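Hi, here's the filled form for the chain we discussed.

Project: internal
Contact: R.S.
Residues: 333
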Amino acid sequence: MPNDSDLEHLQSAFAAIRDQLAKAVVSQDAVVEQMMIALLAQGHCLYEGPAGAAKSLAAASLARVLGLQFDRVRCTAELSPHDVVGLGAAPTGTTEVPGPIFANIVLVDDFARLPASTDALIQQAIQENRIVLDGRRHGLPEPFMILATRYPEVDAADSIVEHHDDRFMMKIAVAYPAYDEEFALADKPAAPEPVDLEQVIAKKDVATFRQVTSLIEAPPHVIHYALRLVRATRIHEGETPDFSYEWVDFGAGPRAAHYMTLAARIRAGLYGREEATADDIKAVAHPILRHRIITNSNARSTGVTVDRVIRRLLYEIEERQDGDEQRPVDLSD
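And the returned structure, exactly as it came back:
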């Protein structure tokens, strides 16, 4: 377990990060929490929301507050791998700059428009934390996180779910601000001025916080709960509630259970706790599962969304069962 002073440092830093970001973006506490979890987990995120929901501003503001470099890849059908890599991580000319992929936080805007060759480069960066182009290997910085933006799907029945979405740790859903907050924005007599955000931590602190959160524990009953949630999404496996048969075509794989318990551990650390709880599992279930569950035609025709499926899972699946305090017998012995 981490020591108390390290946990207090992490908790106070996270509180300060949220306070700073609240100056720039409104109604995005959950988004900030999820981006921090992914960054500390060395994960990457799908980042979905309507136009004008401050997705880019939130990502750039997070980088500024963490003392990290931010850049953006604007996707088009003509975007080539060379446009993403540029002149490499450390070009020699005085007027040359690295390609956008070499920032710490990279916003890949309108991810669905990437051509196949450039998409393959982004997937390599996600999977291997490096890229190879024209026979040259390029290492990527630490920390490194991709936020791949999408607009909400209008008709999920006509959408193609890419198999490599599972490589993203989370799918973060960004919503418009609440009524009162949007009223306050509309009531301003002039366009909002840019906010001067303070840097809260240094880049090296990210590595320190990763070490701290790696020591957070998840008791067996919390892991069992995560597994029950994930396995309940898989039809024809004998552990599936009836509503999953009615609404789900494909469920979540083993990555979901791993990421769910990892995210729960990190979330516990952000709030100064030494152990993850079932409440942490519930808090991360939506972003972990929403891109790993594919609803069927019956669900789509009746307006049942993936988030509704997850809410039903959280309502139906028991937090604790007999034997949850035990770990399974190690079959390798």
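Let me know if anything looks off before we file it.
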